[in-house]
Amino acid sequence: MAPVREWNRTAVMEFILLGFGNGPGCQMIPSVLFLVIYTVTVLGNTILVLIIRVNSRLHTPMYFFLMNLSLLDLCFTSTIAPKAMASFLSGSKAISYNGCATQFFLFGLFITTEGFLLAVMAYDRYTAICNPLLYPVTMSKWVCVQMVAGSYICGCVNAMVQTGFTFKLHYCGRNEIDHFFCDGPPLISLSCSDTYVNNLVMFTLCGLIIVSTALIVLISYISIISTVLRIRSAEGRHRAFSTCTSHMLVVTLFYGTTAFMYAQPTWLSSLYPRKAVSVFYTFVIPMLNPFIYSLRNKDVKEALRRTMGHK
Fold first, then answer.
1. What's the pLDDT tens digit per position in 152-196?
2. What is the pTM of this model?
3. What range(s) does the G-protein coupled receptors family 1 profile domain occupy (predicted)?
4. Does 148 reside within a domain?
5. Which of 12, 119, 244, 297 has its Cα between 20 and 30 A from that of 219?
6. Is residue 184 part of a domain?
């Protein structure tokens, strides 16, 4: 049996992404839905990036981070959407071993980076509202660049660790991933190796990242709320809160879904509809982000009107 087992381990050269089922409607409906969402995501985030770039009034730390969030969302959803749509439309659900590893790494890189970047954006709002006199020094251009770079470094380290542990496992014949992209839990479940260490590493790292970044956000907004409530004028309180509400909504959506997916034991996560939640944070949230930030932001709306040539 040992030689057969060893042959099966080397035989898995590709994986099959099962997606949402095998029926015609199970492929056509998601493909159309993904195409519409992906198109809106690309247009919305690209327009927001261009607006921030061409309008000098938006060259501030808050919009610098927002521009990087839009670029990150473009990369994040582009890691998954094109392959998923191609699989739905062509019927070919295969993805190579190396292609799966690459998608897994990029997904881990971008989703982790986004978590840290959202924490950085919360700290930026805390500094602007609670320490306005020190804000130009504390959040200088060089500091902002370092914070974004640090977010990517943290994302890269986590992605390297997760990818290394996951693709060191042996896969013995079973190669059907019950998902529409190469995600950790369904991929690890295919392994014929002992996956206890992998599940522990994934749970620990994801838990630490989510808890640490969420704590930064929580502490920042507790301090912001405390400061804003001491502002005497209603107009002043409204202006202070208006710069934070969009970010708070995005943070709630992002951390709520990622914690639901990754910061819980594997045996518990299998009880929930992973695919539906995955669609939400891989497609819907990147699509909603530019609209959440622009529709509730007077500066962005004014810059959009100027860019389009309206008085």
1. 999 999 999 999 999 988 887 778 888 889 988 888 888 888 888
2. 0.88
3. 44-293
4. yes
5. 297
6. yes
